[in-house]
Specification:
Layout: H1 2-21, E1 23-29, E2 33-41, E3 62-71, E4 75-76, E5 79-80, H2 83-101, E6 107-112, E7 118-127, H3 135-143, E8 154-166, E9 169-172, E10 182-193, H4 194-206, E11 210-216, H5 217-225, H6 228-233, E12 235-240, E13 245-251, E14 254-261, H7 265-276, H8 280-290, E15 303-305, H9 313-316, E16 319-321, H10 322-346, E17 356-360, H11 369-377, E18 381-383, H12 402-412, H13 431-434
Parallel strand pairs: 1-6, 6-11, 12-17, 17-18
Antiparallel strand pairs: 1-2, 2-3, 4-5, 7-10, 8-9, 8-10, 12-13, 13-14, 15-16
Helix pairs in contact: 2-4, 5-12, 7-8, 7-10, 10-11
C-alpha cells in the first residue's frame, strides 16, 4: 500500500515540477497509433502551490506546441506485447513532436486502454475533529474507506472521491471549511492489471523519459468528448479504439465506472482481410474509404475495386459491391456494441436519470454507426469529438484523438485522487487498509 501511495505521489510531484518548468508531453499508447502532444504552460498560468490541488485549483493555461503520431507497433489489445517495437514507436512519436515544438521533453504523462480495468465503489465515514472540515479530516475519511480484496497482480490506477456528505447534506464536491459533525465520502477506485502498467512504465523509461503520470484512456476520453452538461447529469463515453474499446460512465463531473472490451476497429479490418482474401493494409484502406454500418439499396450498385499486389491479374482486379463490404463489417460492429451494452447493464447505467451515450475514438467514424448503436444500446447516441485545445493542429481534432486531448486536460487540471492528501499515519496502513492484498511491491 505504501509503495503504491508513494509512487503515485512521486508521479504527481514530478508532474507539478514539469509544469512549473513549463513543458510536459502527453502520450497516448494505442493499438493502432501512438500519439504525442507537447504542452507548454505559460509562466503566468502555471499551477501555483497556493492554489490547492486538483479540481479545486482552477484550469491551468497551456498550448499544444508539438504534435506527432506514428503507427503503433508492438501493442495488442491496448497493452505492450513487444517491448522493443513499442519503444521504437514511442521514440519516433516523441522525437517528431519535440522537433515540431523545438523543445526537449523529459517528462511524459501516458494513457493506455486495455489492462482489464475493474471499478469499485468504496465508502468511508468519520467524526469531524474540530467542527470545521479541514484537509486533515478529508485525509481521515479517505483512509477510513474499506478497501476490497481485489486480488494479486492488480494495481490501483485511479482512486477519486466522487462525493462528500456532511451530516445530512450530500452532493458536496469540496467540504473544506464547512461546519458539521459527521463527514462521509464515496470513492471510485479503478484497478488494472499490474503487469500491463509495469511494462508500459518500463517501456517509457527505456525511451529516456520520466513518467509523470498514468491514466486510463476510457477516463480521459470521457473528459474530452463529453460536454459539461453530460458529465454533470450522467453519460457514458464509448471510446472505440483499434484493439480495445473503453467504456466510462460520468455523473456529477466524476467518473463512477470504467471498463474495456477487448475488441475494436482492427478486428473489423481483420474480418475484411479474411472475408475478401486481401492483405490487412488493403482491408484498412477499403474500410476507411468505403466502409459503413448500414446498407441501403444503392449500395448493391456501388462497386469497389479491391486491388492488390499478388501479381495474379485476374485476382487483383476483383470488384465487390459496397453492400457486400457492409455485410462483412456489420456483424463485428454489432458484436462490439452488444458487448458494450452488457457492460453498461452490469454497471447499472439504466438506473441513471440521464442516459446519453457518446461514441468517440477512431472506430466511431464508420458511417451509420451512431444509428446502429442507438438501436443496440437503446439510448440517445451522438458522435463526440474532443474539446478544442489551444494550439491543437487541425489533423488532431478528430475523434481518434479524444484520449490524447483528454490527457492534456488531465495533465493541466487533474481531479483529486487519494494520494493528493496526507493520510494520517495512525490510520493509514491500519485496520481498513491492512486487509487489502499485498499492493504491488516493486513499481517502476
Amino acid at each position: 500500500m505504501i509503495e503504491l501511495y508513494d509512487s503515485q505521489r512521486a508521479m504527481r510531484n514530478m508532474r507539478k515540477a514539469a509544469i512549473q518548468r513549463g513543458v510536459v508531453a502527453v502520450l497516448d499508447v494505442g493499438t493502432s497509433k501512438i500519439a504525442c502532444l507537447v504542452l507548454r504552460f505559460d509562466g503566468s498560468e502555471r499551477l501555483r502551490e497556493a492554489d490547492g490541488i486538483g479540481t479545486m485549483a482552477g484550469q491551468a493555461g497551456f498550448r499544444v506546441v508539438g504534435a506527432a503520431t506514428t503507427r503503433s507497433r508492438g501493442v495488442r489489445f491496448g497493452e505492450v506485447a513487444a517491448m522493443a517495437e513499442t519503444e521504437r514507436a514511442i521514440r519516433t512519436a516523441v522525437q517528431a513532436a519535440q522537433k515540431m515544438a523545438g523543445i526537449r521533453v523529459d517528462h511524459v504523462i501516458a494513457c493506455f486502454s486495455g489492462a482489464a480495468p475493474r471499478s469499485y465503489g468504496l465508502a468511508g465515514q468519520v467524526e469531524v475533529a474540530d467542527s470545521t472540515v479541514s484537509e486533515y479530516d478529508i485525509s481521515r475519511v479517505l483512509s477510513a474507506c474499506e478497501v476490497p480484496d481485489y486480488g494479486e497482480g492488480r494495481e490501483v490506477l485511479h482512486a477519486q472521491p466522487v462525493n462528500f456528505a456532511l451530516d445530512h447534506r450530500t452532493g458536496l464536491s469540496d467540504p473544506r471549511g464547512q461546519i458539521g459533525q459527521v463527514l462521509s465520502t464515496d470513492l471510485h477506485m479503478l484497478t488494472v492489471d499490474a503487469a500491463a502498467v509495469q511494462n508500459l512504465a518500463h517501456c517509457v523509461k527505456r525511451c529516456d523519459l520520466e513518467l509523470a503520470g498514468l491514466a486510463s484512456s476510457a477516463y480521459v476520453s470521457g473528459i474530452s468528448a463529453l460536454v459539461e452538461d453530460e458529465q454533470e447529469l450522467g453519460a457514458a463515453c464509448i471510446d472505440l479504439g483499434g484493439g480495445s474499446s473503453g467504456i466510462s460512465i460520468f455523473i456529477k463531473k466524476h467518473m463512477i465506472y470504467a471498463d474495456s472490451v477487448r475488441m475494436g476497429g482492427e478486428h473489423v479490418t481483420g474480418d475484411i482481410s479474411m472475408g475478401l482474401q486481401v492483405p490487412r493494409s488493403v482491408a484498412e484502406r477499403i474500410k476507411t474509404f468505403y466502409g459503413g454500418a448500414v446498407a441501403t439499396g444503392m449500395d448493391d450498385r456501388e462497386m469497389i475495386e479491391i486491388g492488390g499486389e499478388t501479381g495474379d491479374w485476374e485476382h487483383d482486379r476483383r470488384r465487390i459491391s459496397r453492400a457486400e463490404l457492409i455485410g462483412i463489417m456489420r456483424p463485428r460492429l454489432e458484436e462490439i456494441l452488444e458487448e458494450v451494452r452488457a457492460r453498461l447493464d452490469a454497471a447499472g447505467f439504466g438506473c441513471l436519470s440521464s442516459q446519453q451515450i457518446v461514441l468517440t475514438g477512431g472506430g466511431s467514424q464508420v458511417p451509420g454507426l451512431d444509428g446502429l448503436a442507438s438501436r443496440i444500446l437503446g439510448q440517445q447516441v451522438r458522435l463526440g469529438r474532443p474539446l478544442r485545445v489551444h494550439g491543437l493542429p487541425q489533423a488532431a481534432t478528430g475523434p481518434g484523438f479524444a484520449s490524447a486531448v483528454g490527457m492534456c486536460l488531465f495533465a493541466a487540471n487533474p481531479q483529486d485522487e487519494w494520494w493528493d492528501f496526507d493520510l494520517p499515519v495512525d490510520r493509514y496502513p491500519a485496520r481498513s487498509l491492512r486487509r487489502a492484498v499485498k499492493w504491488f511491491k516493486d513499481n517502476w
